[in-house]
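**User:** You know discrete backbone vocabularies at least as well as I do. Would you mind producing a protein record, from residues through to fold? Write it directly below this note and I will take it from there.

**Assistant:**
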Amino acid sequence: MSAALAREGHEVLAVARRGGPAVAEYLFAGLDVAAVPPAELARLLTGHRVRAVVNVTGGWGTTEEEMRYAHITLVDRLLRALALMDDRPRLVHVGSVHEYGPVPEPLSIGEDLPPRPTTMYARTKLAGSELVLDAARAGRVDALVLRAVNVCGPRTTRASFLGAVAGMLRAADAANPVTLRVADARRDFVDVRDLAEAVVLALASPATGRVVNIGRGEATSMRELVDLLAAAAALPPDALRIEDGPIDSKGGNWTLADIGLAGRLLGWKPRIPLAEAMRATWEVPAD
């Protein structure tokens, strides 16, 4: 994300609890946004003359408290901080396609679909997005919400399915084969670099108070994704065994985003093929 912003001439200030290689080249402020008083965050942003904020935070916790902290408390503190600034920055908030809740195959998820989330992850993500939308529609902030599908590519978090699979494959060989249980599910995945380009375009867009879906607009089987990742790892055939497994995710067994609005409103479309995304998932692990 930071690299895409820097390429467009933005001076990047990364704000997070901890730094790492992904932000090593940029100005960094170690701060827990969900914990600090909004006035402190406002002073930080004002002091650095911040004109745009991208919120890509999200928790992979397992408890309601953890998810509310990452998805609701943090967003509320951020919005309160922006409201205190004389020159309020543009905000792009990255939400999740899971905010819509489970949908039946072969439905394509459009932005007009009423959200009906069923998991704690999806409910808290939706609550955070709705805080942003309410503030934008009330004129308190200039903001756009991007609802992203499942993300892959470089630095895919180890907490995700593909990140976990990549970690297991690194320990696999013919003498120590890995057995994976893969659900009979089809989901929309987008490379994080394509998502970053959507964020750049969203920052420049005059649109506010709206939701825009970001995905490939394709539903790919989880088995095909695992096969692409195994091919990128160049594993011998007998190093990986795949078995059928249960649906176990923060979404359902089917996601397919309608990305037409992203093209019309932002001039965006995905460019990176899944095979290339899986190569990057393998070659550039999470920090």
